[in-house]
Write a structure and sequence with these properties.
3-stranded parallel sheet, about 500 residues, globular, alpha/beta, about 40% helix, 14 strands
């Protein structure tokens, strides 16, 4: 069925206004994006594919803003493991888990403000961060180091500090993933996770950081594609009127923007259908549809626009609900266009706060077999799990580059799966081994590899760049609590200095 739309009518403009699409290309704005902005599109999203350098991003956003001065330009820049602005180098800032380990809210506020200034200087005024999830499940495959920690009070105070810091730079924050994605063993990129705890647990644990974010003035909240039966036994958060409208709007009194997590994720697209899921989300109380991480073409935007128009005309989606959602998007765009203007013109000098934070987050354990720092070119064995989709596989991580810079001739290789430890031993020869892992407690093969290395070479240095859940192992064990570039740099400093 073909839905007839007219570019200038209010319904069509509202249907476009609630979308936050991505697009391909890096240095120029596609003509179709220009046309849709003229027809009512109020937001666009940038991903790693749109980023080469900070200067290039600033030029790109200037082109976009020339089409509409109050355009919302969004990005998923958590810092730490999830970075789009520094997708090719690794982040200059430690992530949430490192900041939570330091537990200095002043540091968290300063890191967020510094990152905000950098985003604003690039012309970005809306950040899909911070993660306010409480990492209650150590086997969580998608949150982990993206969380400030497992203690709700700690997560709450650092979520508030992050919101305050970043928004002081004129960049709107989006506390995520409401009502919480921490107590899951499934990644919602693949299917619908279930948080099967009672309302009292949700209130005291998962919802506490979101209340703190609201009190701190977060301009947006991002919904989660998770099922919390105590709140709604039938619908995941993103599609739940009970959760988005009943809980967040009416019970918590929140008046800001509600944006969805990526609607192309399988928890929604694979279960309800992409277009239908987007309609259900707006009907439930969401205001903005995050899309473009996957589909990023004009056809996707037109299909979604037409789906909203058809839903209104059929009576499935009340026209006033769509209009209210569009108005909230425009209201945030108005705030961001004013708040971020000074930062866009002022630039963002490097303060070094990211490396300072990464150093403070380290936990260094010297075992009984520790005798000396690494002073000659070692062999770095990186044991790499499959990356989760939120982190992606484009961003480099580890300590190889930083050790090579300090100890030229450093060798390296990456291993995975059964027998990885024996393979690394054979490749290392007589060189000192530096073993780098990520969440060793979640991967039996990785833990086996470490045991194999340490048994054969007791002077092995181990760097854990995930959640340090396992007991320290090796002559020197360094927990970085994240794989940002600065975390690798901080670890390398300890490896060579002892």
């Amino acid at each position: 069925m073909t839905t007839l739309t007219h570019a200038g009518d209010t319904l069509t403009r509202n249907a476009l206004a609630v979308l936050q699409p991505g697009f391909d290309g890096t240095t120029t704005v596609p003509d179709w994006v220009r046309h849709r902005i003229d027809e009512g599109l109020a937001s666009v999203s940038l991903f790693g594919r749109n980023v080469q350098t900070a200067e290039q991003v600033a030029a790109l956003t200037a082109q976009l803003r020339a089409e509409r001065g109050d355009l919302l330009i969004a990005i998923d820049e958590e810092s730490g493991d999830v970075t789009r602005l520094e997708v090719r180098t690794g982040s200059s800032y430690p992530g949430n888990h490192a900041l939570g380990a330091v537990d200095d809210t002043t540091l968290t506020r300063e890191v967020a403000a510094d990152l905000g200034r950098r985003l604003a200087a690039c012309g970005i005024n809306f950040n899909w961060a911070p993660s306010a999830d409480v990492n209650a499940n150590p086997d969580n495959p998608v949150i982990g180091v993206r969380s400030f920690g497992s203690d709700p009070d700690l997560v709450a105070r650092h979520t508030a500090a992050y919101v305050e810091g970043m928004q002081s730079s004129g960049v709107a924050t989006s506390a995520k993933h409401f009502p919480g994605h921490g107590d899951t063993a499934i990644d919602s990129h693949h299917s619908v996770p279930v948080i099967d705890v009672d309302r009292d647990v949700l209130n005291s644990r998962d919802l506490a950081p979101f209340r703190a974010a609201l009190a701190a003035g977060t301009r947006a909240v991002m919904s989660a594609h998770v099922l919390a039966p105590a709140l709604d036994p039938d619908n995941p958060g993103t599609l739940s009127r009970r959760i988005l409208t009943g809980l967040l709007r009416e019970e918590f009194g929140y008046e800001g923007l509600i944006v969805t997590d990526g609607m192309d994720m399988q928890a929604i697209a694979g279960t309800y259908g992409f277009e239908r899921g987007c309609v259900l989300a707006i009907a439930a109380g969401a205001d903005a549809i995050c899309t473009g991480g996957g589909p990023s073409d004009e056809g996707t935007v037109l299909r979604l626009r037409d789906a909203f128009v058809a839903a209104v005309r059929s009576g499935e989606l009340p026209e006033e609900r769509l209009a209210d959602a569009a108005d909230r998007v425009r209201a945030l765009a108005d705030w961001a266009s004013v708040s971020g203007a000074a930062e866009r013109s002022g630039g963002a000098p490097d303060t070094g706060i990211g490396l300072i934070g990464a150093r403070r987050a380290l936990t260094v354990t010297r075992g009984e077999t520790y005798t000396a720092p690494v002073t000659e070119a070692p062999f770095v064995a990186t044991f790499s799990p499959l990356p989760n989709i939120a982190v992606g596989d484009e961003t480099p991580w580890g300590v190889t580059a930083e050790l090579e810079r300090r100890l030229p001739g450093t060798g390296s290789a990456t291993y995975s799966g059964e027998g990885a430890g024996s393979q690394a031993l054979a490749a290392a020869g007589t060189r000192r081994i530096v073993a780098v892992v990520r969440d060793a407690h979640r991967h039996a093969w990785m833990a086996d590899a470490l045991r194999t290395l340490v048994a054969a070479r007791p002077d092995t240095v181990v760097v854990e760049m995930g959640v340090p859940q396992s007991a320290p192992i090796g002559a020197l064990h360094i927990a970085t609590r994240g794989a940002a570039r600065v975390c690798g740099e901080a670890a390398a400093e300890v490896i060579v200095a002892g």
